[in-house]
Specification:
Largest sheet: 5 strands, antiparallel
Number of helices: 5
Helix content: 25-40%
Radius of gyration: 15 Å
């Protein structure tokens, strides 16, 4: 079981030395750290950070910060984030898009709502931003610890 001050992103590092600097205004240097810090932001209710790190082309960005935050606050009351595991990642491609495959253990209203996601991230000149994600049920994917981007990119 993690120590109370361990970062919820699963790094094993203290929050103050891990995701807190990003939540306080810093920019993660790569897509994996952005993804980890976004997960920790969901856990900690850092909704402004989640909006700030949305790519302008993400559908939710059009909601605006206030409506986006209200949606997250409503969802947060029903959701408990239990664990994150980064399964695989790919450096930016020729279009500048990096990808991260992860598994999130989540409970929503007392029921298992865990998922696997293949996320895409792009740098907007200021920092890495969450562009899009494709969510998959972990059922039928086999041993998640062995799952790689190539295994799910065409599902």
């Amino acid at each position: 079981m993690p120590i109370a001050n361990d970062c919820s992103c699963g790094s094993g590092r203290p929050y103050a030395a891990c995701c807190e600097p990003f939540h306080a205004g810093g920019e993660p240097p790569d897509a994996v750290l952005l993804m980890r810090s976004r997960y920790a932001a969901f856990v900690r209710g850092e909704h402004d950070y989640l909006f700030r790190t949305l790519h302008r082309d993400h559908d939710d960005h059009a909601l605006g910060a206030r409506a986006f935050r209200a949606r997250l606050e409503k969802s947060a009351r029903r959701t408990r984030y239990k664990a994150l595991v980064v399964l695989d990642h790919a450096s930016p491609d020729s279009d500048g898009v990096a990808r991260v495959l992860f598994s999130a253990s989540v409970m929503r209203e007392g029921k298992d709502a865990s998922f696997v996601e293949l996320s895409s991230f792009a740098h907007d000149g200021q920092g890495w931003r969450y562009l899009t994600g494709r969510t998959l049920s972990p059922r039928g994917l086999g041993d998640l610890r062995r799952l790689r981007i190539a295994d799910v990119e065409h599902l």
